[in-house]
Amino acid sequence: MTLAAPSIAERLRRDLKLPVIVAPMFLVSTPKLLLESCKAGLIGSLPTQNARTTAQLREWFNEIRDELATFRAAGGKPGGWAASVLVHNSYDRFPEELEMLQEYQPDIVVTALGSPKRVLKEVHGYGGAVFADVMSLEHARKAADAGADGLVLVCHGAGGHTGANSPFAFVSEVRRFFKGTIVVGGAISDGRGVLAAEVLGADLVYMGTRFIACPETMINDDYRRMMIDARMDGVVATKSVTGVQCSWLKESLIAAGFDDSRIASTAKIDFSDVHGELKPWKNIYGAGQGVGQVDSAATTAEVAAQLIGEYREVSAELMARARA
Fold this sequence. Notes:
Elements: H1 5-15, E1 20-22, H2 31-39, E2 44-47, H3 54-73, E3 81-86, H4 94-104, E4 108-112, H5 117-126, E5 129-134, H6 137-146, E6 150-154, E7 160-161, H7 167-175, E8 181-185, H8 191-200, E9 204-207, H9 221-229, E10 235-238, E11 246-249, H10 250-255, H11 260-263, H12 300-323
Helix pairs in contact: 2-3, 3-4, 4-5, 8-12
C-alpha cells in the first residue's frame, strides 16, 4: 500500500510533541540520538553512511527496532523515525542499503544527492514515505515529478549540504505546484523558528545544528567545544570539501589547512568509501547558521523539552495577540 503524503504528515503531526525532524547529520547522528529524539516526541533520523560498514548498519537498525518496540510495550508513544540514503551514483553501498531499508522499514526514507526514483518502488512497497532533499526550485520540481511524498527544502543557512534560497520564497513557490509534505530546514534552532516555519506553510521542520553538541552524537570534544563557542559568523559555506555547497565551522577549516583561496575552490564530488582516511571531511566540522543557539552540551531530551516549551509559549503569545 502506498501512503499518500498528507496522511503521513497528519499521522506524524498527531503523534509528535513538536513537528521537528532531528536532521540526519553526516558523522554526527547515531542510533542513540535517533532513539532519544523519538522518545522525546520528535522524529529521529540518521544517514545510513554514518555506519562504517553495512554490517554495522544492520546492528544499528536492530537496535532501533528493538528499543522502539520496548518503549512502545512500556506505554511510550515515540515519534517516527527516518533513514537518509545517498542516491548519488558514486555511493557504492546503495544496493545493500536499499535491501536493508525494505527489511527494517523506517517510516520515512530521505534521499540525498540524486533522484528519489531509486527508492520509490521499494519504500512504497512496504508502506513508507519518500522525502527528497532539494536545494533549488528545479530540484524540487524534478523530485515532485518523480513521485516523492515529501520535499525537504534545504534553505540558506542550513548546516552540512546547504541551499541558497530564502525559506520565505522557497516554501511559497513550492506550494504552488506540490501538495505533499513540505519540510523546511535552514538555521531553525528554537521553538519560535519552528512555529514560523509552520506559518510559512511547512508541515515539518528539519533541525540539526541545535542537536550537534548533545552527548548522544558521535562528535569529539574538540568539535563540541567549537559548537558551544561559535556564533553565526563562525560558519562558512564552500564547495571545497565535498564538491557540493556545505556549511562548515570556519575554525575547523583553518585547523585543517584551508586558507581563503582553498575555501573558494571546488572539490570533485566523490562519495565512494565515505569513511576513507584520505577524505577531507574527516576533521572538518559542519554546522548551520543557527549555531549561536548552542551554548551547552545538553542532552537530546533536555533540548527537546526546551524547544517544546518555547514553541508552546510563543504559540500562546501569538494567540493572545490575535484575540486582542
